[in-house]
Amino acid sequence: MLAVPLGATEQHGPHLPLDTDTTVAAELCRRLAGRVADVVVAPAVPYGASGEHAGFPGTLSIGTQALELLLVELGRSCDRFRGVVFVNGHGGNRAALEAAVRLLRFEGRRILAWAPSGPQDDSHAGRTETSVMLRLRPSDVRLDVAEPGATAPLPELMDELVRGGAGAVSTNGVLGDPTGATAAEGERILETWVADLAGAVRTWLDRLPVHDS
Q1: Cα gap 89→25, rounded to integer Å
Q2: How confident is the model at residue 209 (pLDDT cuts 50, 70, 90)?
Q3: Which of 44, 107, 112, 124 has the fewest CB atoms inside 10 Å of its own CB, making it the most exposed?
Q4: Which of 117, 119, 120 is nearest to 156 (CA)?
């Protein structure tokens, strides 16, 4: 089975690196391969649909349409694997991923999509992602400039976020409060996520027919 990390290159407030989502998705795939037999990890997709962050320096986005096409063609090229799981580290990729998965499944391909969960009031560059990055790449986290952003639950922000981008709801690009983040908490979060991911993959694989080589 092939695990494909889906990330993004986008602002994560003043304190986290641009490739935070890609780093997290790649780590989850790496840990998945350590828990589920015969998992091969593909190179991460480092660009996604990040238009909502375009007002902040450093954000690079290929958009929903291009990402959907990329994922469809990736899925079509993976027929030699028993199945493919897209591990999505960026919420903005969701529409493209859902559309690509629908088409690939319609074509008879074995595709699973999975994404980590988190608090609705801590969805971007807040305590969750900051803790995880302190665990994975502490030298790239600048706690000295970490500060809260918009802390309302994401559903309450979504309409304005869609209309005006992240800058319309948060002057620093943060959706959450990174203060209090720790590497220990980051490890606990990663372990919770990978346990959920591994469980989802095992359940899915059990339902698949035996793959003919």
Answers
A1: 5
A2: confident
A3: 107
A4: 120
